[in-house]
Amino acid sequence: MANHLFDFIRSRIVDPDRLFMETPDGATMTYGALLAETGRYANALIGLNIRPGDRVAVQLEKSPAVIFIYLACVRIGAVFLPLNTGYTLNELEYFISDSGASLVICDPHARDGLSEIANRHHAQLETHGRDASRSLYERVMNASGEFHDVARGPDDLAAILYTSGTTGRSKGAMLSHDNLASNALALVETWRFSPQDVLIHALPVFHTHGLFVATNVTLLAGSSLIFLPKFDAKLVLSYMDRASVLMGVPTFYTRLLDEAGLNAETTAKMRLFISGSAPLLAETHRDWSKRTGHAILERYGMTETNMNTSNPYDGDRVPGTVGMALPGVEARVVDPETGKPVPQGDIGMIEVKGPNVFKGYWNMPEKTKAEFRDDGFFITGDLGQFDERGYLSIVGRGKDLIISGGLNIYPKEVEEEIDALTGVIESAVIGLPHPDFGEGVVAVIVREKNATIDEQQVMAGLDGRLARFKLPKQMFFVDELPRNTMGKVQKNLLRDAYKDLRFS
Ligand code: AMP
Fold first, then answer.
1. Is the CB of residue 415 below 6 angstroms from any atom belonging to ligand 1?
2. Chain centroid to CA 434: how far?
3. pTM higher than 0.90 for the full model?
């Protein structure tokens, strides 16, 4: 019987001796070895009595083992549940109890903290340490690499990924075998992946970007990975002479731009630079083109939907846009109230539909219902607009929209004007409760080193560039903006930090 996702992966393995992965320590793994290794993990998990549909929660530092456990879960029909390595015990308890995980796999140093939680929620706990005895690793070493994949259909769950949850509790997005397979196939086609490609993998593997986009695209193209434990600009640059693709968050690109060695020669072997998960400043896009001759390809996606849109491989990659819907995916911009598409050029809510869109939030049928339209479109929560050529731009999260004196203000519009001022690196614009206007615009600004631009100069620079109601009513200068591991500015933290502000 078929295993929907793993059958696709197998079908791409034409030569078992072909390289799948290499790591900085010089170790390599072929596709044939990957099959045997994931077979061993599959047998070890079966030995722990993990059944189809069971949730396997994994909080491990980035290593190839995370990929093997993910693929082993696919092969045994279990549901892979990766957890951010930064989560605290309190947060982990929520994920373990909410998901009803049967097994928790952690690094040896986390065992003591997690064992009580695992006990309380009737989950088994296994460490994954090479030197630890009685660990999953030991079971894997003693297991056979032969494994017959468990039958799974397109709609069966492959993974649950908890969203980063900037408001309220984080929600478990249920992703099926076909959500993952269909999206990887669309990306292989759109980005022209082939067995010749070598991808520099420097993203975390607890998030959709590094786990699914990077890994599944590689697997479904039969390409190979240079698998790095984390992003390090110098290390990434050093691999560019024998890799072909980099997938990154915008901070990868800004950090690489700080490297003196980044130029057209050192990137000459590279075929494609892809960015996503947070907005890439148009300025970074232009600087990158100037320095390397490569136009970064920006795409847009989210945990719940996998990838939705991408700039074209051939054709213009337009800075500040996320391109068009991927093959098989529909994207529209609607009036959030009525759900009716707005005229081209107007800002509205981005909604998407297609085989990429998740099966709903785990244990939250009401929340799931509220996020879908009757015609099956998922309400992303992102605001955007289409230009006349059909390129989508993201204006920001709907909940970041500021309504001041009854008028809508899109933070991005104000941020772009502030960022363009001499002496400013970047800014974040938020709305805070205002006694007269409902909300007042507040700008949090990061100055360039040694720059002295102050509030008055910012106001003078914005004069005539923005309508008066959009101008910041208060400003703060900070050393850096709070960002999560995917490079997203955490506006909720800023709103929180300045919540006691009294507008003067
Ligand atoms: P996550 O679920 O962590 O992948 O976050 C998804 C969110 O990241 C989206 O809903 C967008 O708000 C944001 N995002 C992803 N890609 C982009 C992009 N290229 N430009 C701007 N925002 C993006």
1. no
2. 34
3. yes
